[in-house]
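FW: tagging you since you asked about this chain on Friday. Here's the raw sequence from the shared folder, copied in full. Didn't touch anything.
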Amino acid sequence: MNARWPLGPVCKPCYRASRTRLATCTGCNKPRVLIARQNSVRVCGPCAGHSDPYACPRCTNPRSYKVRGLCDRCTLHDHLAEVFDGQRAGPEDQYTKMREALAACDQPTTALSWLRTSRSAKLLADVVTDGRALTHEDLDALASAGSRGGARAVDYLRGILRAYQALPERDELPARVERHLARVLTRHPEHALLLRTYVRWSLLPRARRRSHRAYAFANRLRWAQMRINVAAHFLGAMQAAGLDLAEVTQHEVDQWLAAGRSTRYEVRDFLVWAARRGHGRDLVVPLRPRPDPVTLDEDSHWEILHQCLTDTALPLDVRCSGAILFLFGQEVTRIAALPADAVTARDQETVLVLHHVPIHLPAPLPRLLSEFADQPRPPGWSTNYPNRWLFPAAEPGRHITGSALARRLTDHGIPSRPARATALAQLAQDMPPPVLSALLGLHLSTVTRWRSRAVTDWTAYLEARAFSRAAPGSEPSARVVLGHEPSARNS
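HL: got it, structure written out here
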């Protein structure tokens, strides 16, 4: 027995469940610890004429199960006061919106846990007490001086501060790439001049072309980091062999490629740039081999799509994301980063905007998307502020990650990669590449590759047919009507 309530003795598991998962009292309609019984119904103590031993002395709400004395909300207010009232100088309104939003968040328990245990929250407390206006440059200095774990804590704090307008928006890609380059140069200082020139004048301009898109930031960052790593590794290997970049021949390049993983083929970007700038010879590196995409059979594709559209047992976010995946072949990272206004009403009809062109949707997808866009956002320790994502995360101002959405789809039996490949193959059969590129926001070369995969190539068959006609006594095995090329679906 862990406690004795008016309704009787309570064991430890029931006590913990009642204290941590509050229930709505039928007498006062408030979330309370139901310790008594009235008319065979569990109610709180005051509604049954007893005192409430778990009432917060400040606001009468139930006290926290983990924090002694007060409820989580009042304890959260006290911790926020400790953090922000200690600000000695600086702009008084820099953290005003952040403090107000945290104090009024839906889940004070989680916000309180963040303030008490998170590394980024401790960093916030240290920064606030410095007594001056916080800038991006201050956080950059903290991230560069610390470990990788400290840099992640700084980036997490930066995202929260931007979401609450304590810091202005900025392009994060150059700063993150420069930070990674600095870490690489600490291990390879002898290649600093060449790598800095390569990053500044080749990598960064290309990486920034699409980094303004929310879904593209992480991909472009990994794209740049991989090329920096491979270039530094290649230069280090050539230096260990006693060769400068200008002395490297095709033989050394082939040996280096054959001795490692396929990621080494990414050195092609660096070697092409070096040859064009006169830093090395014109060397040949094949494009990195890509495996053929795995697709679903047509029956499975349409069966799972029908399930997404009609199965009410599936969560609504899974149904909507799965339908977009199966119909339009969008990457999961792009679906996760769809803004809230991607689902909008035009001419009294719900449309979906994936790039610039509004897409008219087949029933019942408009109803599903409208219902999903209009439903209250799931509660988190801080609201999605500002709420501008169709699939928001619990962190303020962020959407869920593509990996999280992919896991959620997989948990409900939806294979994301084969589904995307099948959808793009079917779309590429039915629509010209320029139209499909503008509709889905894909690069024209990407759509053209899918077109070449989806449409059957009849060259080998025609050559064999011509050869069989030339052979005496042979007959063609099939009839082909010129100008009416069969699609891959019917082949």
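FW: The longest helix spans residues 216-240.
HL: agreed, and The chain is about 50% helix and 5% strand.
FW: great, closing this out.
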